[in-house]
Amino acid sequence: MPTPRTRVRRISDRGHYDVATIYAILDEGFICHVGFSIEGQPYVIPTGYGRDGDRLILHGSVASRMFEHLREGFDACVSVTLIDGLVLARSQFHSSMNYRSVVALGRATPIRDEAEKRRALEVLVDHLAPGRGADSRPANDQELAATEVLEFPLDEASAKVRTGPPGDNDEDLDLGMWAGVIPLELCTAAPIDAPDLASGIEAPRYARDYRRGARPPHDSKAPESRHPDSRQFE
Which of 6, 68, 109, 113 is the most buried (most CB within 10 A)? Predict the structure, then answer.
């Protein structure tokens, strides 16, 4: 259920609060943006993440200013956005993007238990490429000591999604201009061997057959409802 802080207010019919939608977006993304404030100065920093059940795993250097701040328990905002298409309307006002996004609010907690910290780092690697965690060397003691690993709760999160074609005004339909959606997808190519790879080692199947997520269709018959007081790309 949404909280007063996570309820979508602008174009509220795009808001989603079920864990299936939220988790699916997070599982497809790679980069989150972490918002926080230090002595009144706001910062938004991009970083990698992984999802482990109802929490996100974040990691970075123990010397990082962001991680030093987060581990002290200050409020933070974590957001993830996936872009699925460019929505080109006849009017500039209604031009938009199809997207899926998640915003989570809360406070991060350091993971101190060594076994749990190592498992969390494996979650991060598997988030990039499922199966890679068991197919890579775990952090040694020195690397583990230099790495801060935080868990960020997902119990206060919401998603916002736009799909479908442009929502032009009726009076613009006869302008004689093209309108539609340019789909955008993250595509993979054949794996590239490291230049120092020993001969005889082939790319594993999870690298050869890598795929990421399933995007919603772009060919919906009807546009989303228009809101006269807000632009479509909000």
Answer: 6
Q: What is the pLDDT of residues 78-111, one digit of tens each?
A: 999 999 999 999 999 999 999 999 999 999 999 9
Could you tell me the maximum CA-CA distance found in the chain, to the nearest angstrom?
67
Instruction: Tell me if 103 is assigned to some domain.
Output: yes
Q: For residue 220, is pLDDT > 70?
A: no
Report pTM. Answer: 0.88
Of residues 109, 78, 152, 106, the one with CA closest to residue 3? 106
Residue found by looking up tokens 């980069």 in the block? 31
pLDDT interval class at 15 (50, 70, 90): confident
Radius of gyration of the chain (CA): 21
CATH number for the domain harbouring residue 138: 2.30.110.10
Decide if 214 is inside a domain: no
pLDDT in tens, 126-166: 999 999 999 999 999 999 999 999 999 999 999 999 999 99
The domain containing residue 156 runs over which residues? 12-208
List b or e across 80-116, with b for residues whose CB sees 16 or more CB atoms inside 10 angstroms: bbbebbebbbbbeebbbbbbbbbbbbbebeebeeeee
- Per the domain annotation, does 43 fall within a domain? yes
Question: Around Cβ 207, how many Cβ atoms within 10 Å?
Answer: 16
Distances from the Cα of 52 to the Cαs of 36, 123, 218, in angstroms?
Answer: 22, 7, 30
Q: How many domains does the chain have?
A: 1
- Provide the strand spans (E) within the chain: 15-16, 31-38, 41-52, 55-61, 75-88, 96-107, 109-110, 147-153, 157-162, 180-183
